[in-house]
Specification:
The protein is mainly α and about 90 residues long. The chain is about 55% helix and about 0% strand. The protein contains 3 helices and no strands.
Amino acid sequence: MNRDQERRWILRPRNIRKLWWLFCLVLAMTVLAQALIPIHAEFGVDGWFGFSAYFGFLSCMAMVVFARLIGGVLKRPDDYYDDKDV
């Protein structure tokens, strides 16, 4: 690790671990808050406990998969923009 990386608090493994725990705690609290706050469901499924968390997670996974697929379609060779003898 160079000096620049030593100064950055977010790159330290101990702080990364703390951030993961903090994020997991916040996510768990938001899901558990649904037990205290009445949900007014428009459809049947959005009234399920933790539906927003499940839906958000699955939507994020779908976006990642879609980005990987579209990246494979749009990928060009490394020398694509090199000057070619035409």
